[in-house]
Amino acid sequence: MLAGIRFDAVNASLLTLVVYVTVALCWSGSWTAGKLGVGAVPPIELSAIRFALAGVLMLAIARATGASLGLARWKLLLVASFFGIFAYNALVFVGLTLGPASDGALIVPTLNPVLTVLFATVLGERLTRNKLAGVVVATAGAIVVVVSAQSGTELSSQRLISDLLMVGGAACWSVYATIGAVTTRTGSPLGVTAVACLAGAAMLFPFGFLEKGYQDVPSWPATAWLDIAYLVVFATIIGFVLFYWAVRRFGAGLASMVSYLVPIFAIIQAVFILGEHPTPIEILGGAIILVGVRLATWRTPVITPLEDAASA
User: What is the pLDDT of residues 225-234, one digit of tens each?
Assistant: First the structure.
C-alpha cells in the first residue's frame, strides 16, 4: 500500500510538470504571434476577434461534450472575464505595440506567480514552504533573465510605458487565475473558459471602434489570420483550458508557477525561429527558474484544500 501511495505521488508530480510544460509551450509562442499580429492589425480588434472565435469554438465543444459552463457563479465569471480577458489583453496587446515582445514575455510571467500566490492566500489557499521556496528561487532566476536580457538597452519613455502596461497586465492575470480556483469548482475548465472568452470579447468589442471600427477586417493579411489562429487554438483553447484544469487540480498559486517556464521557452523559440542567441547568464537564469518550479511542485497533493473558498 505504501508503494502504491508513493507511485501515485510520483505520477501526480510528473503529471503536474507535463501540464505545465504544455501550457508554457502554448503561451510562450503567443508572445511571438501576438507581436506579429499587432504589427499588422489593431490590438483591440485582434483581441476581440480572437476571443470571440475561441469562445464560440469552446462553447460548441462544451455543449457537445456536456461540459458544465459554471453559470451558477456567473457574477464571479464576469469579474474573471473583466480581469483575465478584457483588462489583461487590452493592457498587454497595447503594450506590444509600444515595446518588444521579449519584455512582456519576461515581465508578465515573472510577476504572475508571486501575485497569484498572494491573492490565493486571501481565498484560503495554504502558502506551504515548498511553494514559498519555489517562488523565491524562481523569482531570483527570473531576475537574472530579465537583467541579462535588458542590459545595455537604452530605456525610452515608450518602452517604459509598455513595461508598465505589462506589469498591470500581470496583476490582472493573477486576479483571473485566483478567481479560476473558485469558478472551476462549479464548472468544467472548458465551459468556464468558453464563457470567460465570450464575455471578455463582448467587453473588448466596443473599444475596437476607437481603432478602425472593424472596417479593416476584410483587408487583414493572411499572416495576421495565421497569428490569430495560433492565438485561438494554442494560446487560448489548449493553453487556457489546461491552465484552468491545473488551477482546479493543484490550486491557483501552484498552477501559476507554469508562468516561470514561459521565458525559458520564449528564449528557445528565439534561437530556432528568430535566430537570436541568449547569453550564458540568461541560460543560467532559466536553469534557476526550473529549480524553482521543481521546488514548488515537489510532492504536490492531487487536490489542494480550496473547499472553503469554493463554497463561499
Answer: 999 999 999 9
Comparing CA positions, the residue from 154, 8, 155, 170 lying closest to residue 87 is: 170
Contact 47, 90 (CB under 8 A): yes
Nearest to 178 by CA among 250, 264, 119, 93: 119
Percentage of the chain exceeding pLDDT 70: 78
Q: DSSP string of 131-159?
A: HHHHHHHHHHHHHHHHHHHHTT----HHH
Of 5-9, 92-96, 179-183, the range with the lowest mean pLDDT is: 5-9
Distance CA 209, CA 214 (A): 7
Of residues 92, 99, 68, 111, the one with CA closest to residue 235: 92
C-alpha cell belonging to residue 4: 502504491
- Is 252:180 a contact under the CB 8 Å cutoff? yes
CA distance to 34, 47, 68, 84, 153, per residue, from 99 (Å): 12, 18, 39, 21, 12
Ranges of H-type helices in 184-238: 189-204, 222-230
- 121, with CB counted inside 10 A (0-12, 13-18, 19+), is middle
Residue type, 40: A
Q: How many CB atoms lie within 10 A of CB 61?
A: 15
Residues belonging to the chain = 312
| Rounded CA separation 178/83 (Å) | 11
Distance, in Å, from the CA atom of 10 to the CA atom of 305, rounded to the nearest integer, reads 20
Taking the CA atoms of 122, 91, 84 and 116 in sequence, report the sign of the dihedral they define.
negative
Q: Is the pLDDT of residue 170 over 50?
A: yes
**Which helix (DSSP H) or strand (DSSP E) does residue 91 occupy?**
helix 88-98
End-to-end Cα separation, the chain, in angstroms: 36
Lowest mean pLDDT among 20-29, 183-192, 210-219, 258-267: 258-267
